[in-house]
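Subject: for your reference before the review

Hello V.,

The reviewers asked for a structural picture of the protein, and I figured it would be easier to keep everything in one thread rather than splitting it across files. Below is the amino acid sequence we used in the manuscript, unchanged from the supplementary table.
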Amino acid sequence: MTELAFAHGGPPLSGRLRVSAEDFEVEEILGFEADGTGEHALLWIEKRDANTEWVARQLAGFAGVAPLAVGFSGLKDRHALTRQAFSVQLPGRAGPDWSALQVEGVRVLEVRRHSRKLKRGVHAGNRFRIRLHELRGSRAEAEHRLGAITAHGVPNYFGEQRFGRGGENLRTARALFAGARMHRSQRGFALSAARSHLFNRVLDQRVGAGSWNRALEGEVWMLAGSQSIFGPQAIDDTLLQRLEAFDIDPTGPMWGRGELRSSAQVAEIEQGIAAADEVLAQGLAGEGLRQERRSLRLRVEGLRHSWSEEGSLLLEFSLPSGCFATSVLREVCAYAADVAGSTG
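And here is what came back from the structure prediction:
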């Protein structure tokens, strides 16, 4: 995969990531509480070095229900220590003794009743606690970089996890658009990778031009903390003040059928990226996916850091759902991961 532009200059550190699962902790922020009634068990699960979908199948087997009866909101990193919610539909019965579940690397921390199945993407975000090891580079520059990230955010790139090992999912997308037949799940990963790639190319161009967190003519805006969009509209002082205050963010395209909502300078950039890779752009439109938008800027909430005596760096922060911790890490450290991460 081509290197994407950095917003704050190249990373001041290099080091290692994921020496152990405990070096990459993720805790899901659901954003709501179990309602205490209904036919679903809402489980708070801790998993270590375990794939989310695999854990869901283990829960289904233990409860004696079909895999489709188990829901979760987000795919969390496999090679990590993560805590997230699962729902298990148990119509007309209390369910098993969840404390008796014996699955390596999996613990049930809490069980409550809930009236609805968890669906993908309903969680508000994720908290991360990540340790980087064997660091080389300037600590002073790293401190300055962390301050810049807090003040300005980072480009909201899709992480390398989205594209599979060595970009496999993107190659699969090109094969799909060339007529290859494939399983529904494989097709889903391919379509997601294709849309993410085109978005990243647009964002990369705007980062290189210094406009990823600035207002251009023809901008479509997203209200922070929501998926609500508006614009284009004339750029005025009020709009610029809202941008500066992180109340709104510029957006880029999640490609599909239909006309781009952007116009003028922004549309020219986006159409140029699509024209440079017509196979992906036309393939996505042909699959019936509709044009959507995604924020170009990612605000990093509650960023804290500390250095250990042996020189490792601990970073703690929160991100909205659908955003990648690696998009934050890459601005600080050129890291080598001991294992490849999955979508978080």
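For the response letter, the relevant points are probably these. The longest helix spans residues 184-208. The CA atoms of residues 20 and 188 lie 30 Å apart.

Happy to draft the paragraph if you're swamped.

O.
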